[in-house]
Design a protein that fits this description.
Elements (H helix, E strand, L loop, with lengths): L1 E5 L7 H14 L4 E6 L4 H12 L7 E4 L5 H8 L5 E6 L5 H10 L2 E4 L10
Parallel strand pairs: 1-4, 1-5, 2-3, 2-4
């Protein structure tokens, strides 16, 4: 499964949702990749703290990707993991969101958005 947590509003909980879903899926025994596509890199910081403070909990892989290679890299890695969860930053333009929509039917947006999809 590929799940994108995105939306245009900053501070709406995208990173919280992405990181908690990643931890939950890892706890359920899934091999999970968390893609931090946000310039603030908060998901990466959370992952580093989690690995340091809770080393006995199920772990997952976390990487940083930016727009230039985001779609192609996720597409390339999707078969290597049970789940790929993408944390996007605020101010996501319509073009990258359309790229995500072609990549996966599961696009989770925070706040109101005309591009929301339910699953």
């Amino acid at each position: 499964m590929i799940l994108v947590c995105g939306g245009i509003k900053g501070g709406s909980g995208k990173t919280t949702i992405a990181t908690n879903l990643t931890a939950m899926r890892a706890k359920a025994g899934k091999d999970v990749l968390l893609v931090d596509a946000d310039e603030q890199e908060s998901a990466t910081i959370f992952t580093a703290i989690r690995k340091r403070d809770q080393s006995q909990r199920p772990q997952y892989t976390s990487i940083i990707l930016r727009e230039s290679n985001l779609r192609s890299e996720i597409d390339r890695m999707r078969t290597k993991y049970d789940d790929v969860i993408v944390d996007t930053g605020g101010r996501v333009s319509r073009l990258p969101m359309c790229c995500f929509c072609r990549l996966t039917p599961e696009v989770l947006t925070s706040g109101r958005s005309k591009m929301s999809r339910s699953f």
